[in-house]
Amino acid sequence: MASPPPAPPSPTPSGGALRAPAMTDVAQLAGVSHQTVSRVINKHPSVTATTRTRVLAAIEELGYRRNSAARTLVTGKSQTLGVVTLNSTLYGPASTLYGIEQAALESQYFVTVASLRSTDRPAVGHAIGRLVDQGVEGVVVIAPLDSLAQALASLPHGLPVVAVEGDAAADIDVVTVDQHAGAQAATQHLLDLGHATVWHVSGPSDWLEAQQRTTGWRATLERAGVEVPPPLRGDWSARSGFETGRVLASMPDVTAVFVANDSMAVGVLRAFHERGRDVPGDVSVVGFDDVPEAAYFSPPLTTIRQDFGEVGRRSLALLVDQIESGARAAQRHVVEATLIVRDSTGPASRGSTASPKRNPQHKPPTKARPH
Predict the structure, then answer these.
(1) Which helix (H) or strand (E) holds 192?
(2) Of 129, 86, 135, 87, which is closest to residue 111 (Cα–Cα)?
């Protein structure tokens, strides 16, 4: 007698990998209706704590994931946000993107990223167009360059948009770290240690952050009535920091340097080491960013910390507000920068510190409030 045919595979996840678990599977396992599962997923307040716990346990056991396409058809919302960013591995833009992605994850939004090879207006418009075609509900533009800031002025008026490190002149919300105050804190820290003045290795001239850090450095020196040395230009790389550091290391009257990012600062430290200039015994160095490796430089680097997680949270909150209200507020939202003191800064040595060259038109400064 022939054996009976095998039973057909179970349509449920437990019967094999025929299909992904559905909401009805969750409902069956939890012993509730699919409407109740939907309420739990969408955080509806009418579900009891016991039922919510049972449904969440079933979701976890089955590995259920919402079908975003089906949800879009039902609600008209994709729960997807777009991010336009530079095609760059620089710490600032990369960390900003990560902060936005983490904030979106916490708020149950998906993120689609468009990387720019060019930063002119047509390239930005094309990138945003691609994101809109993919159904994003709003866009965050990481815009630290002059050219990107200018491109923001031509964005579609009906599209919710937030710029990070952008130009407040555009008719959109901007979230930015207080670059100016961070540079002031770095410079004032060195002046408070008794250094006659502070030299500066700046970033590229077309970067808004570099401009603001240079402005904060210069304003602090002018307020103190001390000499303002000419800034040395870098390109954010350790190589450029090393090259400018070799120039500074050959100048015996240089006792304090504020470097516009930590990557260039490590190059400056290497240049001083090769020249036999001790840090911080002969020269004090402050960076900007507080990269994860900064505490392990030799010596550990005093620097300015940027809270990229807070930048991400504020950017997302503003974008969601625009999506829900349908209006742009066009405000500038500032995240504080924090001075992190480590071993690369110390008091000016007696043998190398000259008397401050003060401008007689300036009055003695009031000590700045620490950041």
Answers:
(1) helix 179-192
(2) 135
